[in-house]
Amino acid sequence: MNLSDIHTITNLGAGTMGHATALQFAVNGYPVRLLDTSDTALQQGMTAIQHDLTTFRDAGLLHEDDATILNRITPTTDYAVALTDTDFVIESIIEDLTVKQEVWQRVETFVHDDTILATNTSGLSPTAIQSVLQHPNRFVVAHFWNPAQLMPLVEVVPGEHTDAATVDLITALMNHIGKHAVSLKRESLGFVGNRIQLAVLREAL
Known about the structure:
By secondary structure, the chain is of the alpha/beta class. Helix content is 40%, strand content 18%. The chain is built from eight helices and eight strands. The chain has helices at 18-27, 39-58, 66-70, 79-83, 97-108, 126-130, 164-176, 193-204; strands spanning 9-12, 32-35, 73-76, 88-91, 116-119, 139-144, 153-158, 180-183. A hairpin with an 8-residue loop joins β6 (139-144) and β7. α1 packs across α2.
């Protein structure tokens, strides 16, 4: 798969990080299916997206009207609606390894074999998450920094079984939507940014 083959995005989670990553893709022209477990969570996510759009518009950062951008986002609680014929899945749910593994196993039952999968985890091992997948080679970390709609950095982190081509593709995709993607050659505890941040905090304490 090439960058030009990615047309549809599925965003798992509509919370603090999930709504922001969904917005980032929608602002950059991608149709996004926004999946969460309840209509309440989806409504809260869409309200946050509208708030961010107002902030962007007030700052002169938008080139389209809000309605056009919002129409690219389809909120749903239905896995089949969210995942059928999608090209890229980005997940921002609870930082719990077991939950993530269960969700990703379910995701794999709906997507094509070549759909690219990415978790927005800030510290869990991609190797551990992908260990339960049928096709771990297409799974990678794409760690956005909070607030994801504003912060440029995205760490792209492979697991032990991630193909180099997957890392290259997601790095290109992140750059394409206006982020500054930095790819790691291998995973490390806390990746890079959090390791530096925690070292500074430890020294300050």
